[in-house]
Target: Linoleoyl-CoA desaturase
Amino acid sequence: MNDMTSNRPLSAAELDRFGAELDAIRVRTVASLGARDARYIRRVVAAVRYIEIAGRVLLFAAALLGGLSLASVSLAGLPLASLFLPTWILGTLLLGIAKILENMEVGHNVIHGQYDWMGDPHLNGKTYEWDIAGTSENWRETHNYRHHTYTNVRGMDDDIGYGLLRIFPEQRWKPFYLAQPLIAVVFALLFEWGVAAQNLRLGRWWAGKTNHAKMRENFRPVGRKMARQLLKDYVVFPLLAGPFFLPVLLGNVVANVLRNVWTYVIIFCGHFTADVETFPKQSIKNESRGHWYLRQLRGSSNISGGRLLNLMSGNLSHQIEHHFYPDIPANRYAEIAPEVRAICARYGQQYNTGSLPKQFGQVIWRILRHAFPSRPEAKAPLLQAG
Model:
């Protein structure tokens, strides 16, 4: 764990220079966007399509093999039953990979408007709908606006614990949090459903602060999206396999769980490692551009791991760069990261990064530690006194 005092308080003038240098990276990067970025996202979209088709075909093949094996059919003396499990595993894995790529590298980034400059209606951030239970419209409100504007500001950023978990000692402890190690596991398995329900603010409804009529109105589009997802993955595709629907159904369930858990791990590693900070509401009063960048930096963490991890995480392995530049195509984050890191070092600011096991280990520690009463630790101030 890094020492939080390694973050040097900055003067107002230093904050202005810090912000200007980071703004300059943005200007240069946006000016250089072009054919290679369009080619990249279109290749990922095509990969998602073909990997999903391969996964679903293999699941249907596994269902057929399972049916034939019941009849003791063999191929060249090899019982078909022996081919069922590897075919099912490969099909499920490919479908899970397709869902991860669609969710993280395509859906999340497109919805941020990263590719609006292309003028492609299929990659428009205001209209793209992704393959999870939650609506993109709600995500634009809870994530693009509230989270990215008020990153880790207590009482304004709903992503701090998602209303279920006490991740930071500044969150008021309640006996309910004693159960959070178990709740965290369930949340990971059902993460897309948590995302779907986030903007409904069910806690306010249960507390009587939102009436039933308003809740029904808010739930209507969410309910329609949930129904479409359930129908697609758990009714239509399994029924296409006829009487041997069960392997297809189970494959879809496992693929969605794989996507949910992976997304949970990446998002939590980007926001809840040991040195990530939260901020009081008053900290953003009259916030300058440099101050905003500094808050994003201290509220984020990166994951080191190379190109494959970058791709499978939707480049959220560079969460710091994403929080600085959420509407810049994420495939650019790796190339601008060294310059961002150098600027942070020059101004005496920690650039929080580490391997996936290290970062997720810190997340697990936070979940376990803050399930019990704990007190806030001293943090280096953002600004110099005086």
